[in-house]
């Protein structure tokens, strides 16, 4: 798997032998500029996860993905950025991220997400769970 993490993530090059070229990829909506936006932690593991997810979503699933993630400082920011809010009180908006590639133990994230969901049920992000990495417990 190390070769995937080191593979360049750009619009011009493919990392997988049978990857879908950019001109065949689709947007997540009818808007021409609507691509999947990632948030990522600043640690190296999060950035490797972003690169792998970028390759899978763009070359296997065939969606346009932003080439660079939005770097997220902590769990609280991840939650309000997924909701498209400018802070935890959600008293302002900004362009949301669609997927969070943040390596964190789910037990630390769940209480924050539940609090945000109670305070802002109409915009709160949905947790799709962990990809199975519980190494930071």
Descriptive overview:
The chain has 4 helices and 3 strands. The protein has helices at 2-6, 44-60, 75-82, 106-119; strands at residues 38-40, 70-71, 99-101. It has 137 residues and is mainly α. α3 packs across α4 (106-119). The chain is 32% helix and 6% strand. The radius of gyration is 16 Å and the shape is globular. The longest helix is centred in the middle third of the chain and has 17 residues, at 44-60. A 3-stranded parallel beta sheet has the order 2-1-3. α2 links the parallel β1 (38-40) and β2.
In short:
With 137 residues, this protein is mainly alpha-helical. 32% of the residues lie in helices and 6% in strands. The radius of gyration is 16 Å and the shape is globular.
